[in-house]
């Protein structure tokens, strides 16, 4: 037997030995640490426009998020394994310290004393966000494993639900707090706010948390750790570059990164199959609960991010909420998610089984996506709210119950690596889901806009027709965070068009007045022949005779009549322009709603794949305290 297969000697059962007050303090500290990581994924989004403006770094806008994602995703399985070897406490504390250092440096980005070392302020922010991600990976990967260490399997569900709720809560608080701090204090406090929360979490963990070690003392798989980074980072970069349009999917850069990632994966599998204590033990995949569970979480990660991202874009582009308000407009989804996470965890603890609730949650998720696939330009907001709640109730059970299932199925000393692997697969699913859904958006939206604008162009005034010809090119070129809005601002367009019409008719008045005042009917006829002159006005000008403008009084009377005709023509042009622009705004809303509804049709398939992956999972009973000691995951019995 290898170290991964053999129960370590002297391993402490913390679920049995720790009293509940100590567990509660450990739980508070761990939740605070997890809240830090979850909050940082949402609080920065509302501050980014101001940061970009102050640091003059629009070209690096998306990299502020990408750098964090790359670092946190690649390190998750590594931290999980290290926590199995060295204990949860030192790894978690290390992660919080790194995260806080990164937060402090992010807050100082652009300060003069840093410019000489790291270059531009925006580049500093990208580097420091990557450092934050390195710390955040420890928080997310270790936090869920701590629950399995200090609570018996049957008790874990209700606490895992709390951890799922933290992510939902952060998605509500983050945009609100980020906007408040940016508008009222400084964008730097979006990062500095992490410091007091992190220090409180550190205090709880340092003073109250035991080491939570598995008892393993194997050799560290350095090569495996390196290869998982070489596999994941190029793959994430290739997907990001392809999704946001930085490079074409068939470009040498993207294809080269895919090739490097594939080669690293092959080497990783070879190394892991021979190391005595691999970063990701391949033997775990012989465990049906783990194998099917991480596959299901991969699909759920893709579906979850697609739900949040494209629902926000729908709310901005179709429902007309502001970009800042879009973060809070998804509160109904978040409330459903929190209710689903906490409720499913509580039920799992009471009933002792989790699979039925997983399947019910996935069916609800499919139903929520099905409802969202019916969205159109006229869907009432309250109806959208109902759909969001249904989807949230379906998504809620995913995070806690899959963690619970995986932790219950593996050996106690494998909980860290198994839990972090699930998180790793979910985050990978999110990145791949963003790329796939972004590709659908890019491929579908321009065609939809062109199709909806075709009848508008045909009926549009000549002055607007040329402008409408190029409007489909305003569709975003990717679906990632920071994709531009394609909402058509009808009010602004009307104001702009009105000014253009007024300027055009003002020039026409001058031309007609000058021509009439010459007393030369040929000059008037030349103005009448201009293509810029409306048809009715042209007929009026062509009817003017030489005797009518032969005297000053006659010319004055003609100018008064022509001016009245110009006013009527201008009013008609403005009315026609406003009608056309209203139809353009409607066309954009219909095009975007149709595109988003198709993305949610694909989301139904993704959720269905998660359901298919969950069906073969064994329905293991969650044993009470003291049951099944020494057995894998505390396994007590198997149903079905």
Short description:
The chain has 640 residues and is an all-alpha fold. The chain has 24 helices and 2 strands.
How is this structure best described in words?
The protein has helices at 14-17, 20-43, 48-55, 63-86, 88-107, 112-118, 121-150, 153-184, 189-192, 194-208, 222-244, 252-272, 288-319, 323-329, 331-351, 355-372, 381-395, 398-409, 415-459, 462-469, 490-517, 521-528, 535-542, 552-614; strands at 619-620, 638-639. With 640 residues, it is an all-alpha fold. Among the domains are: 9-217, Up-down Bundle (Growth Hormone, Chain: A); 222-274; 490-587, no CATH class. A two-stranded antiparallel sheet has the order 1-2. Helix 2 runs antiparallel to helix 7, helix 5 (88-107) runs antiparallel to helix 7 and helix 22 packs antiparallel against helix 23 (535-542). The longest helix is centred in the last third of the chain and has 63 residues, at 552-614. The radius of gyration is 31 Å and the shape is elongated. The model is unreliable at 1-5, 472-485 and 628-640 (pLDDT under 50).
